[in-house]
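Q: Can someone sanity-check these two? First one:
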Amino acid sequence: MDAKQAISLLQHYQEGKATPEEIQLIEQWYQELEDQGEWHWEEGEKQTLEASMETRLLQQIQSPLRVRSLRPFRWAAAAAIILLLGGGSYLWLHNNTSHPPLATAPRGNHPADIAPGRTGAVLTLAGGQKVILDNSAKSQIGSQGNTVVLNTNGQLTYTAPAGKPPTGKPTVEKPAEVLYNTLTTPRGGQYQLVLPDGSKVWLNAASSLKYPTAFTGKERSVELTGEAYFEVAKSSSQPFLVKVGGMQVDVLGTSFNINSYSDEASIRTTLLEGSVRIHRGSGKVLLQPGQQAQVETAPNASAEIRVIHDADLDKVMAWKNGFFNFQDASLEEVMRQLQRWYDIEIVYEKDTPRLEFIGKMGRDLTLSKVLNGLEMSKVHFRLDGRRLIVLP
């Protein structure tokens, strides 16, 4: 039985449409759950909990399930994991062992909570001046050359005054000075940007984008660190280039995501619409929608550009859509995401547990709620200020 069938069966049970065989199966799930100690009934509450489990389960699933078959353990345990998470999210996890046990950790054991990330960034102007940006009402930052810079509700926009377009060839008499700005998000911050040509950029936490305040040459070139999602305005006369980590992405007009964090094993460029060409040394690869290019970043890594033909677009775009997507994610990968979004330091007390997670959680949850969900595996945490210690 797969996940969708299990959820459907629980819904039938809730609606009173289950067959006698289905009723027997569901009641067996509950009994197995109680026998294993994965769900602890309070005195006199068993019937109430049995009647409400299906409702709570269905209420907490916010989107269609897209999960693979789990390694064998009882479906009752899977249901308990979903129910105990709370916060309008669902998460499955299993160990990379032949007999994956599950352990429910005490809830509420993180007295000092940390809020999730928010809209915020730092803009560095051409002269070196730094401007703190947040999700405030419309305000004019100033002018950079002939371009007006506006900050409106968490979005930075570059526009040209009437009669002074931000693009076009500089005059022979007086060459236009190229001014550069840099938008930087801290850990725990994200921001949106509209470039002078109308292209849109979403910056994830701990990222930066360097760009000219006017695209005046034969190409539109920007430099990225970290992660960003681009929706590029089309211009056949000015190709759009993204320089990132010793490679280059050539674009005409398309939507794509680049993940280039220095603590990740590879730079991943994922194409949603249009086409992009990846350059690495003498190698070139043309991506089609749904494909992902991976370039290893280790000092002695191969220069090969690996192409994933069926990329998980939901996982790639989860951060922009307000979620953590932990599909097939190791504990280290999960911790790196939490470190960037909650601005914390991760410390491993001993060897990292070999865990693999499946599911998604909202990025609007406090850190304690996320940890309470993750602690249903054999890994536990201790929070010391902004240091999150991963315990054995």
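And here is the second, same format, sequence then tokens:
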Amino acid sequence: MAPTRVVRKSLVLGVLLMAPFMAQVDATIANVATPSIHAELGASGAVLELVISGYLVAFAVLLITGARLGQTHGYRRLFLAGIGTFSLASLLCGLAPDADALVGARVLQGAGAALMFPQTLTGIQLNFSGGARKRAIGLYAIALSSGAVIGQILGGALISADLAGTQWRAIFLINVPIGIAGILAGLRYLPTDAHRLCRRVDLAGVAILSVSVLLVVLPLSVGRSEGWPVWTWACLAASLPALALFIAAQRRLADRGGAPLVDVRALSTRPILCGLATLLAATGTYYALLFTLAQYLQRGLGDSPLVSGLALVPWVAAFGVAGQIVRRLPSQLVRRAPAAGCLLLTAAYTAISATLFAGCHEELLLIVLLAIGGLGLGIQFSALIAHLTNAVHADHAAEISGVSTTATQIGGAIGVAAIGTLYLSQSQAGAAHATHAFAVTALALAAVAMLATAIAHQATRLDRRERQGRSRRHTPLLDSLPAGAAH
């Protein structure tokens, strides 16, 4: 490959990675700003929850739709539209005159993130292959993980600096110049949309899917803070028949020769389903850890938000190293890496729980174990994304991009709701009680990671069975040939 081509590909990847990084930063950056928002705008606790969850709900609900629009209208065009919407919404957030306007702008910001985010994985699948794709997916994993942690660190730093008296507004206004730079870079470096499908978007599918995801994500996002009222359980119960309706409608549309929002037949192979389930479970433990570790360090041990965010830097660093390890592995080992990564993640959570139950409160040991956990999650994530993108044709890049990202968001919502509730139910005043609560939480995270290990192993095992099945189907033909004909 010529040097100029290498540089061009690197620039393309750099532009594409802006989307997951910015989206993840703003998924967590507002967490540390809620006290400042409350002080200036007088927002109630419920409204503050909507400032956080409004972004996440809009993001999760529209991800698959954003991926499909990228396929029908071009991923480059949707990337630019998404980052433009995200930047405009960030400006509106920073200028919001009251809490209601801030919530509305955050919902718009989540919609912009949903438009730009899935175009990254689609762009990687269309523009990179072989070793270059492994490297791109490894950097994609770094952008995701580092964005979530940097959001917390950057939020605390900007609010503390109080630049030009902006207080919390600076965490949103900083996106505007970054977004403008992203648009200019996208116009300059992203290839034109040659790979497009000229077909109408399934609007009925968009509506049904949006409702289905909303019925899951909304109650999980606000249920804990609201005390789990009846409507949250009703929504969760209704989400299952809504999802079944969506799948049935997509199958019927495909059978009639139409263009479904999601080609469920292409994604219904058992290796892909197991891969998505692994992604949901393992990533869910990470989002749950983000929430519970912050509670433990800040409210339990009295550390600052900045210290809490810095505690996860070794996790992010190890996560990034994992991506580089996976891209250098031979294909046979990459196929086994998801289960190995989940097993390492299980070991890290188990060790954290065991040390805390044993009365060991050494922060250095906790940081080392967090780094091991980040390495395990990174190995699982990078190998699994490579597995999923390689398992489908480029025509289904939108499906795998949107569905896999939605799986991580739903997994995160479930993880924070379930594990967060477990931690808060165990935690009481005092460091000792907080330590016990986090030990119980780490043990629960280990159990989920072990489940993810079993599912990941099943996914790779199914791949081997399919290869063996194909070999057996060719055997009779070889046996029927005259002696020496097979040579």
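A (reply): Looked at the second one. DSSP finds 18 helices and no strands in the chain. Residues 470-487 have pLDDT under 50 and may be disordered.
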